[in-house]
Write a structure and sequence with these properties.
44% of the residues lie in helices and 9% in strands. It has 390 residues and is an alpha+beta fold. The strands form three sheets. The chain has a four-stranded antiparallel beta sheet with strand order 1-2-7-4, sandwiched between helices. The termini are far apart.
Length: 390
């Protein structure tokens, strides 16, 4: 009996040493690849996620993001995504700006681009590094691995909270005590058994700075987001005309919105990004609306080469810029808006009509309306109706 117990103890000790060595190895690899944080959790560490996701979807708060509902089962449970996973490693990479990104909102002639999109696409930056780590780890551990960066049905924020990277704040985004709201996340799933970290606790307290900062009241309650009212969703994910209710509230935000992130008091502990590929390009910090209105498809693709902005396409992008133009109050943009009112894209033509209605004197807009071409697109006809010229 003593021999059997001793043998079992030896096996347990051997297994523990293996977990410790593999855990230390992956942390060293994360540091070598420039990640700021690396923590580990189990695939069963987010038991409340399925219910929260179900509520979010049942209330329609995902808007037109049908892929969220289509991947509901795999998204809610890491084991449903990959049944063999035993450990999940979460990585955090700081992308903090060197100044408050809300400063540009007081400059209506300039366009506000979300901090995360002012340089290289973070998916490319992070995934390349995760693949390097995965290759080396698989060779060392003799285990299977898979890496994910945002595009797969992985609930990275709840997993990151369970792993101890931070907690999901009232704005539903991850908040770190060391990096505030400015963290990109990536994950590595593996069949290896690793040493897990303790989860982070919620440190929001009674603060509601992020909720109060939202221009469109997109938070029906703390820790709940209605994407249909979120400027990031409207300017990036939403493909058609943007509801007239939200256009004046969008201001000069042409791609995403950082207001709730920037308002978080925990950002006072965050440093600016050290990775050069994530630091803002000078020409994307405050581009002029007049310049962006000139971009045809080729120029758009060239200017935003390597940027995540490129993924929404020129037409949706110019739609956003026209909203900013209409909110600018600058009559110098009328000429460009008139040209775009005859653009091949219906969504561009429709938003140009809205911008012109706001920028032109009533009598000038009335004369312009009399010269309009016969419009077949129902969305553009609706814009004329809303403008009082239907």
């Amino acid at each position: 009996m003593r021999t059997l117990i001793s043998d079992q103890d030896q096996e347990d000790e051997k297994a523990l040493r293996r977990r410790e060595k593999l855990t230390a190895f992956i942390r060293e690899e994360a540091e070598a690849q420039g990640f700021d944080l690396c923590r580990i959790t189990r695939p069963d560490s987010i038991p409340r996620a399925p219910e929260r996701l179900r509520t979010f979807l049942d209330e329609g708060h995902h808007g037109t993001m049908a892929w969220m509902a289509e991947t509901r089962e795999r998204r809610a449970d890491p084991k449903a995504l990959w049944s063999e996973v035993r450990s999940i490693v979460l990585f955090g990479l700081n992308y903090g700006p060197d100044e408050d990104p809300r400063g540009i909102l007081d400059r209506p002639d300039r366009a506000a681009i979300s901090v995360y999109a002012r340089n290289r696409d973070y998916h490319d930056v992070i995934k390349g590094r995760l693949k390097e780590i995965a290759t080396r780890f698989a060779a060392r551990a003799g285990e299977d691995v898979k890496v994910f960066v945002d595009t797969a049905p992985v609930m990275e924020k709840p997993l990151a909270e369970a792993a101890g990277l931070g907690w999901q704040g009232k704005h539903t985004n991850l908040v770190s005590r060391t990096h505030g709201s400015w963290l990109f996340l990536g994950s590595l799933f593996t069949t290896a058994e690793l040493i897990v970290d303790a989860p982070e606790t919620d440190h929001c307290g009674s603060c509601r700075a992020c909720l109060d900062a939202c221009p469109t009241a997109a938070f029906p309650a703390p820790y709940r987001l209605d994407a249909r009212r979120c400027i990031s969703y409207l300017t990036i994910e939403h493909k058609g005309p943007i509801d007239p209710e939200f256009r004046p509230l969008i201001g000069n935000r042409i791609y995403g919105c950082d207001d709730c992130l920037a308002a978080c008091p925990w950002n006072k502990f965050a440093a600016s990004a050290s990775e050069m590929k994530l630091r803002a390009r000078e020409d994307l910090k405050e581009p002029s609306i007049a310049f962006l209105l000139t971009l045809d498809d080729a120029a758009f693709r060239t200017f935003f080469s390597g940027s995540p902005v490129k993924r929404i396409g020129r037409d949706r992008f110019v739609r956003n810029v026209l909203i900013a133009a209409g909110n600018s109050g600058d009559p110098a943009l009328i000429g460009q808006c008139l040209e775009l009112a005859r653009d091949p894209s219906p969504v561009v033509r429709g938003m140009a009509i809205w911008a012109l209605k706001r920028l032109m004197r009533p009598e000038d807009f009335a004369r312009f309306a009399q010269t309009r071409d016969v419009e077949d697109d129902p969305g553009v006809r609706e814009e004329w109706r809303l403008a009082g010229a239907g």
